[in-house]
């Protein structure tokens, strides 16, 4: 049943209560649903490597990205500190002809392919596990659930759900298309793959493919296909470790209420403790999965251990 479009507050409160994982792994937990991804699940994922082919699921990190300044997010700025020109001119001061190049990058941590950390979203002033938001994330960063805690753990069985291909028209879903539990289940059935405890799920909508064809437009922050608010129960019940999409906002936009902003985030991150990835690029992987009929693979997608960060760039690598 669809929630009342006029009552986002009530729908969020009900879902937060129904699908909360607060206290599930103890009062000091900093991993949330990554607790589902254990050693046995990693062994299961590693056993999926047969051909040894690998795919990066990351977009490029450069000035040609999708960001246009919303929430002060910019595209990466890459600057050279030392170059071949400096070396050839002998300006580096090194002996016996050795030279080198160095560079630096400046960027918001969530400007391209990334993970949302557990300190990224709050619900009525509460962070993951019921902690007061003001005591978790301060001007010094996320003092409790900084994304550095997740760095060793995000590797295991990956599952691709190419909803765009199964449900969409010519491999793509239109903006505003709400992906329901029924769509996710139908896609998994079409792929002959099961989704369950400890999996890292990658959902392809085709939105990134369209942005590449037509230009970025409002890819970052605008209308988009995405998960329906009603999938909160599925996200909780399946006990997946993490989920990522090829869209900027993970959930459908416009959101499914008359006046709301990212309501599924408000349930999934601070209440469920779910690790969410955005702006991933599954297109090459999807083509290979369609060719060989296998939609499960080894996936490693460790965030950078940036102390106190509430998000991190990532280069997910799927190996089949």
Task: Explain how this protein is built.
- The protein is of the alpha/beta class and 320 residues long.
- The protein has two domains: 8-68 and 108-319, Glucose Oxidase, domain 1 (3-Layer(bba) Sandwich), CATH 3.50.30.50; 74-106, no CATH class.
- The chain has ten helices and 15 strands.
- It has helices at 8-18, 39-46, 84-88, 133-136, 163-167, 181-191, 207-214, 232-237, 263-272, 283-292, and strands spanning 54-56, 77-82, 102-106, 114-116, 137-138, 141-142, 155-162, 178-179, 200-204, 226-227, 242-245, 275-278, 296-300, 311-313, 317-319.
- The strands form four sheets. The chain has a nine-stranded mixed β-sheet.
- Strand 5 (137-138) and strand 6 (141-142) form a beta hairpin.
- Helix 1 (8-18) packs parallel to helix 9.
- The chain is globular.
- It starts with 7 loop residues before the first helix and ends with a strand.
The main pleated sheet reads as: 9 strands, mixed
Relative strand content: 15-25%
Q: What would CATH call the homologous superfamily of the largest domain?
A: Putative cyclase
At the fold tier of CATH, the topology name of the largest domain is Glucose Oxidase, domain 1
| Unreliable residue runs | none
Overall form: globular
Quaternary form: single chain
The overall pLDDT average reads 97
Strand order of the largest sheet: 1-15-13-7-9-11-12-4-14
Please give the radius of gyration in angstroms.
20 Å
Structural class by helix and strand composition: alpha/beta
Organism: Streptomyces asoensis
Protein name: Cyclase family protein
GO molecular function, one term: arylformamidase activity
GO biological process, one term: L-tryptophan catabolic process to kynurenine
